[in-house]
Design the sequence.
């Protein structure tokens, strides 16, 4: 044996020298390649081909031959594997190995430095988050420590990504050998890389997710323009255009960001490969519809420590269900036929890879798919399948030698050969760990540890006889001489985690680090006797049945959306908002999502009949000014004009405020950009279709709107550095004059035949305003500024559709009426800041009486739940008739948003957006009992009671399951829920990337 090892060492040394073709040799030159024959092995060539009792020939860095009965040529070192297994080494398609991990630069206003353009010297892009010129092949350097960690797990090659910026440049595929970098890089450009995170960019822009999306879209258009122009040289755009033929890898957080990024891809003819966060199981059909391949992590949520019922209340149903269901994500993708690779990125410890991968297999992932997703699929994604991924002749000699089938719980990885170079992971003659040990942990009394199971040990029990005689089950993970265990002791209750190595074989001894009851220390275990019981044959773990998926994946989510049906609502007081006025003892018939008829004595036909005697029926409430269901920031506040950003890009279908507002009778919400800029972003109108995804929430077929703003916020009087223009009210006026002047010039340039005018998303939106295709709703308070904007609009030829807030509207009501401008105000807000010192609660009534189309809005997630009561205040403040008061939150906002042909009143042919109230809707006693959107009862007060009871039972079931997991040694984390971000006009983001991570996938990973 020693002779074989010596020969192997000498021959391998020769292969190293042979590999260094372009480097000078300091000494004698030996170019003999290493030649090895691995015989009598079970060779898994690929996921579909296994050779029993086969031979693998390796010459230098490559596979010379593989087969059964293969003749071993002279000069080869023969290694008899005696029934052991050979597999292709694993490939990680997304890794930061060999490049520095960037420190995230905080976005938003808290960390702002007022840096508007790139500080990078050279002919680069104006924004530092756009850095396609970055090439990993130029910055990559071997990292021996990380390489060893990855090799021990079984990886032989990785795709190295520079995880910095929105446009990140090219990645490179490298092996994990110890050769020089020029030998380890097997493909210098594997993919162009993207994300929504600005990374280390010092620029203020973007401060929001919608800004990041707009910046990326603008970069694509800039690339198209750059390819046709000869005016400037731009290193970044030149590199960006050259990378369009490469695979495109997009790192996203959460399934909603997969859909957002895919929409960009479809706009520019790109099919991205998504590096995801593993929550695709929540919306498999939507993810599959993108047609994308995925790179998924194994970062399954740890169980929460729910021993204390008070702390258990801190975690949400979504967190609980994610812990339970997230391990099924790989299996769900496989079942759906979605192509995916598996990455180790995101794990707290790389060595957790096998534990989590086996957990995925226990939860339905097939071993064949697991092998494909760690070998052939990533190789094909990266265009390196001619070199690695299978054990075919001519490919690199990247392979594993294992004791058993790769995914067996008792399997041990012995060796990982990379480019024909041998790396020992575990000694082939690994010790059998089964037996009884004396276990000593710092701070604990002595215990008895018993290791049993199949192979050389895969299960354990611990008994602390000094305190109690109860045995507890411990998890046991082994990788050669390394072991880790975790268990929960009782009397007193103590969570224990151990990790360590075999330090002696006679007697067999472990030593390592312990965490016991939150305190760190050392532990040892010394062999005392062999096991006497016969080991049980290894069998698949029986997984407890999981609860159902809910839509959306949050509290009050439902397993199936309520169905649209024909419904006859009978004998109610019906507020039509039409010439018929308020009807007593009347009926409303809903059919196919529309109002079929309104009147008395209607025939039900096949419709479901609901007796509404004593109740009131109204159109659904419409909130003209809302900031719910938005993620990643409501303000893009780095520039005074952010007309390029679109709230449509960041609609968040998982926001529980949708459900809460349905309970208040709201059916339609106008989602607005905030008030950080004179010219804000494009808004999005949604219907509150609870359980639908973001695209399905969108109203559809409506005119586009955009948010403008005046006052203190836009000149950043109370925040910021004072460097951003404008800082005075005079400057605010000049922003409008300058930008609309530019928009007119831009429109003329586009109209020139054969023009190569640069497409500008910011100016596109302003041209739409000039063309009456997009309409302005303007945040406003003070009379002088309101007059100013009306004057600017008159002089530049655009129209203002709505003044929102408009708390001094009563001073300019005559001018607003003359201009045909609508007013969306608060019912009774005043004196909450200097700008509203002269606001009065009669404002709404005065504007209404002058003849202005007037509405009350919320600008607040909580107040939107009681807009019916806000409308009622107009009866008190100004004596508005009740019928007209209701129109302030129904028909009037519909009119100002140009959707009154579909909603806002109860009329045959309109959308069946209808609310049944328990009492007069303008009173504080009224409850919304049912809220229909398109004829679907998304809110039902009786069904809600059942949903609450069912979900409490579901939480109790999962809590019990978590406790069982902890008692069996499963790892836990502290019970804590993330705080939900509630937006209003003035909300400014500190770090939009961190914010949407928290909101959209609120759980902790291993």
Sequence:
């Amino acid at each position: 044996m020693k002779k074989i090892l010596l020969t192997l060492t000498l021959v391998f040394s020769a292969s190293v020298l042979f590999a260094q073709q372009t480097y000078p040799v300091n000494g004698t030159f030996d170019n003999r390649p290493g030649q090895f024959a691995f015989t009598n092995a079970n060779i898994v060539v690929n996921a579909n081909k296994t050779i029993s009792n086969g031979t693998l020939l390796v010459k230098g860095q490559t596979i010379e031959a593989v087969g059964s009965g293969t003749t071993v040529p002279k000069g080869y070192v023969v290694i008899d594997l005696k029934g052991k297994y050979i597999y292709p080494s694993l490939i990680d398609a997304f890794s930061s190995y060999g490049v520095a991990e960037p420190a995230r630069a905080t976005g938003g206003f808290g960390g702002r430095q007022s840096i508007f353009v790139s500080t990078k010297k050279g002919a680069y892009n104006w924004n530092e988050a756009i850095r396609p010129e970055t090439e990993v092949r130029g910055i990559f350097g071997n990292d021996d420590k990380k390489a060893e960690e990855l090799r021990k797990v079984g990886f032989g090659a990785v795709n190295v990504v520079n995880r910095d910026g929105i446009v990140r440049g090219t990645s490179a595929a490298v092996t994990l050998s110890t050769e020089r970098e020029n030998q380890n890089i097997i493909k210098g450009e594997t993919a162009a890389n993207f994300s929504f995170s600005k990374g280390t960019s010092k620029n203020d822009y973007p401060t929001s997710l919608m800004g990041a999306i707009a910046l990326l879209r603008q970069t694509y258009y800039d690339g198209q323009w750059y390819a046709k122009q000869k005016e400037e040289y731009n290193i970044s755009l030149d590199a960006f255009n050259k990378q369009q033929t490469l695979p495109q890898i997009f790192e996203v957080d959460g399934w909603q960001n997969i859909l957002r990024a895919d929409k960009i891809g479809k706009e520019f003819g790109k099919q991205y490969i998504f590096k995801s966060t593993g929550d695709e199981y929540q919306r498999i059909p939507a993810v599959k519809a993108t047609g994308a391949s995925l790179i998924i992590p194994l970062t399954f949520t740890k169980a929460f420590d729910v021993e204390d019922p008070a702390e258990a209340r801190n975690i949400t149903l979504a967190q609980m269900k994610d812990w339970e269901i997230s391990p099924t994500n790989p299996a769900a993708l496989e079942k759906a036929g979605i192509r995916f690779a598996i990455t180790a990125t995101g794990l707290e410890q790389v060595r957790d890879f096998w534990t989590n991968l086996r957990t995925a297999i226990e939860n339905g992932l097939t071993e064949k798919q697991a092998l494909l997703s760690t070998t052939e699929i990533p190789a094909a994604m990266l265009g390196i399948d001619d070199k690695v991924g299978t054990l075919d002749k001519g490919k690199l000699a990247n392979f594993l030698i294992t004791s058993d089938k790769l995914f067996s719980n008792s399997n041990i990885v012995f060796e990982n050969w990379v480019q024909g170079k041998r790396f020992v992971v575990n000694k082939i003659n690994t010790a059998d760990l089964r037996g009884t040990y004396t276990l000593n942990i710092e701070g604990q009394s002595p215990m008895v540890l018993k290791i049993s199971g199949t192979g050389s040990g895969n299960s354990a029990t611990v008994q602390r006889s000094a305190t109690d005689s109860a045995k507890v089950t411990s998890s046991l993970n082994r990788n050669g001489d390394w072991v880790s265990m975790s268990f929960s002791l009782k009397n007193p209750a103590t969570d224990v985690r151990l990790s360590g190595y075999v330090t002696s074989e006679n007697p067999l001894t472990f030593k390592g680090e312990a965490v016991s009851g939150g305190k760190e220390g050392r532990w040892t275990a010394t062999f005392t006797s062999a096991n006497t019981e016969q080991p049980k044959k290894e069998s698949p773990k029986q997984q407890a049945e999981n609860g159902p998926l809910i839509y959306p994946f949050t509290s009050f989510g439902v397993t199936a959306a309520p169905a649209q049906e024909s419904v006859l609502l009978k004998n109610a007081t019906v507020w039509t908002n039409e010439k018929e006025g308020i009807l007593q003892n009347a009926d409303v018939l809903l059919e196919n999502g529309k109002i079929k008829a309104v009147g008395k004595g209607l025939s039900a036909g096949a419709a479901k009949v609901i007796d509404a005697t004593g109740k009131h029926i109204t159109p659904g409430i419409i909130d003209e000014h809302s900031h719910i269901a938005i993620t990643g920031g409501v303000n893009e506040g780095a520039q005074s004009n952010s007309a390029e950003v679109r709230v449509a890009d960041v609609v968040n279908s998982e926001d529980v405020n949708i459900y809460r507002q349905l309970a208040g009778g709201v059916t339609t919400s106008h989602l607005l950009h905030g008030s950080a800029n004179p010219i804000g972003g494009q808004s999005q109108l949604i219907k509150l279709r609870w359980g639908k995804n973001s695209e399905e929430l969108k109203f559809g077929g409506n005119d586009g709107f955009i948010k403008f703003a005046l006052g203190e916020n836009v000149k950043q009087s109370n925040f910021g550095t004072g460097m951003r223009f404008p800082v005075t009210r005079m400057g605010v006026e000049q922003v409008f004059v300058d930008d609309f002047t530019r928009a007119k010039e831009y429109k003329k340039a586009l109209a020139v035949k054969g023009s190569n005018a640069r497409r500008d998303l910011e100016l596109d939106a302003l041209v739409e305003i000039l063309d009456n295709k997009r309409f302005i709703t303007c945040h406003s308070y003070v009379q002088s500024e309101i007059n100013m904007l009306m004057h600017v609009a008159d002089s530049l030829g655009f129209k203002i559709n709505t003044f929102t807030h408009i708390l001094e509207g009563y001073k300019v009501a005559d001018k607003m009426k003359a201009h045909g401008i609508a007013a969306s105000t608060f019912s009774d807000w005043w004196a909450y800041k200097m700008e509203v010192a002269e606001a009065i609660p009669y404002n709404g009534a005065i504007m209404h009486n002058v003849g202005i189309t007037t509405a009350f809005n919320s600008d607040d997630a909580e107040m939107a739940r009681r807009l019916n009561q806000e409308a009622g205040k107009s009866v008190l403040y100004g004596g508005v008739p009740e019928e007209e008061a209701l129109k302030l939150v129904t028909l009037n906002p519909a009119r100002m948003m140009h959707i009154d042909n579909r909603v806002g009143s109860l009329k045959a042919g309109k959308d069946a957006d209808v609310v049944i109230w328990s009492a007069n809707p303008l009173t504080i006693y009224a409850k919304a009992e049912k809220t229909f959107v398109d004829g679907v009862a998304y809110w039902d007060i009786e069904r809600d009671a059942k949903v609450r009871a069912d979900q409490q039972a579901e939480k109790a079931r999962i809590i019990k399951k978590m406790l069982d997991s902890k008692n069996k040694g499963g790892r836990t984390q502290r019970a804590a829920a993330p705080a939900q971000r509630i937006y209003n006009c003035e909300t400014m983001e500190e770090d939009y990337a961190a914010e949407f991570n928290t909101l959209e996938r609120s759980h902790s990973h291993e």
In short: The two ends are 42 Å apart (CA to CA). The CA atoms of residues 770 and 797 lie 7 Å apart. The chain is about 25% helix and 25% strand.
